[in-house]
Amino acid sequence: MLIGLREKFIFIATQKTASTAIETALAPRAEIRLTDSQFGKHMTVSQMMQNMPWLFNETKLEQFFIFGVIRDPLEFTLSLFNSHLHPGFRNMPHVYTGGMRFSDFLEHWVPRNLPQIVPQHSRFLDDEGRIGANYIITYARLQEGLRAVAQQIGGRPFPRLKKLNFSPAGIDRRDLRPTEIAWVEQHFAHDYRFIARYCDRHLASFTERPDLA
Fold first, then answer.
1. Is there a domain that residue 176 lies in?
2. Percent of the chain having pLDDT more than 90?
3. Residue 213 lies in a domain
4. What digits encode the pLDDT tens for the residues 38-75?
């Protein structure tokens, strides 16, 4: 999470969406930088409002331009699986996916690590279920979305993103069985609807409750 007090922006960092690269590019323009997972890097909109109310005493939350990135749910799930193939997780059996079939990942890993695989759109909602962001970029349109965001926070373009946090080569959608794809589609059904209806466009933050029926 990055918060620019002078330029009045908040970047909500979500998992597996180039958040580290965006933080690296935008950090010089942010007075508050939470870039470690242990200390709030992936704080949701709701958690930010609960944990940092003091921040908005001088400047109301609604005056900040809030943005983040969301990913195609199947690509997100595959990235989550592949990233935990990294040898650094070998001594963390509750998250390591080495030697694991994707079906076992869905059956065993997911229940053990639910906070990592909650519907992505929920990270952009406040306690009342309203969308707390002005622009949510889909990962597939990242560069285009960042240009739109840059126009709203001072007009200066972002530096070209450097690819960071490489995941090990693993599986892709061609390796999945129809039942496994169906599991992801069902688990993230609301994300698919949210992406289609609310992403890659300007939103009035804290005024709209998503209709995901």
1. yes
2. 85
3. no
4. 888 999 999 999 999 999 998 899 999 999 999 999 99
Residue 208 lies in a domain: no
Answer whether residue 97 is part of any domain.
yes
Burial readout 169-180 (b: 16 or more C-beta within 10 A, e: otherwise): ebeeeeebeeeb
**Tokens for 72?**
């195609």
Tokens at 26, concatenated: 């935008």
CA-nearest of 81, 78, 68, 73 to 203 is 68
Q: What is the dihedral of CA 78, 80, 84, 88, to 10 degrees?
A: 130
Q: Count CA atoms within 13 Å of residue 122 on its CB side.
A: 9
**C-beta separation of 167 from 85 below 8 A:** yes
What is the torsion angle, in degrees rounded to the nearest 10, for the CA atoms of residue 34, residue 35, residue 40 and residue 46? 80
pTM, 2 dp: 0.93
Domain residue limits at 30 = 2-198
Phi, psi of 137 (to 5 degrees): -85, 135
Question: In angstroms, rounded to a whole number, what is the distance separating the alpha carbons of residues 64 and 113?
Answer: 32
